[in-house]
Design goal:
By secondary structure, this protein is α/β, with parallel strands linked by helices. It has two domains: 158 residues, 3-Layer(aba) Sandwich (Rossmann fold); 63 residues. The chain is 47% helix and 15% strand. It has a seven-stranded mixed sheet with strand order 1-9-8-7-2-5-6, with helices on both faces. The protein has a two-stranded antiparallel sheet with strand order 3-4. α7 links the parallel β5 and β6. α8 runs parallel beside α9. The longest helix has 18 residues. The radius of gyration is 17 Å and the shape is globular. The chain starts with a strand and ends with a helix.
């Protein structure tokens, strides 16, 4: 199901129908964790391993309830400031071994990427995740974007999207809405992360989907409207 905030109103970002057309050469950006990939299982496994190794209690269920911001921000919730850098590095070592293959595709992920390509568009994944881990995860999921950029969140992610020329950005976090706004792109929120569709719309997303399973129909509707 789709809810719209400013669907084709001509206000805010340039009307998405004007920008998309038949998608030829258009770049559409996606977030990774909890947008294209359900990475919670691998993150829980890795956080639990880090906790066991260090003796520091970490509530891994709480961790995966608020995915989105950079890893360093989460590590700082559990370790003193002086230990954040080494513990972040250790987590990444463990994640490469334990976490990457724990990911599964979110509903509609493969169909969304395929639909963009079938309509002549290009796919970018811009994520706060370590770029190497993101590449390995996408390979594991058999999702192969045209462009992948890691270690970007919020406005920094938006600057990258603007440099890439993205017309649309889809993500589950308020930081993804910020990114789209910074890029001047149409913002689509998916309610598969820590925020509901209503919260994403209230924050400023142009549209909200229950999941990526709704994205191919959304995209098809807008492209059809151009004909």
């Amino acid at each position: 199901m789709l809810s719209r905030r400013r669907a084709n109103s001509g206000t805010g970002p340039q009307s998405v129908t004007t920008r998309l057309g038949n998608l030829t050469r258009v770049l559409i950006g996606f977030d990774l964790d909890m947008t294209l990939a359900d990475s919670r299982s691998g993150i829980v496994t890795t956080m639990d391993a880090l906790s066991a190794e260090t003796g520091v209690p970490i509530d891994s269920a709480l961790v995966v309830s608020r995915l989105g911001p950079p890893l360093e921000q989460e590590i700082a919730e559990w370790f003193p400031a002086a230990e954040v850098a080494p513990m972040t590095a250790r987590y990444r070592e463990l994640y490469a071994e334990l976490g990457v293959t724990g990911a599964v595709p979110m509903p509609g992920a493969a169909a969304s990427v395929r639909t963009v390509r079938e309509r002549g568009g290009r796919v970018a994944v811009v994520t706060a995740k370590h770029a190497g881990h993101a590449a390995a995860m996408l390979d594991h999921l058999d999702l192969r974007p045209d462009v992948l950029v890691g270690w970007r969140f919020g406005h920094a992610k938006g600057e990258t999207l603007r440099e890439l020329g993205a017309s649309v950005y889809i993500g589950d976090h308020l930081g993804d809405v910020d990114a789209a706004r910074t890029a001047g792109a149409y913002s689509i929120g998916v309610a598969t992360g820590p925020y509901s569709g209503a919260e994403l719309l209230a924050y400023g997303a142009d549209a909200a989907l229950e999941s990526l399973a709704d994205f191919p129909a959304w995209l098809g509707g807008y492209v059809t409207g151009m004909r």
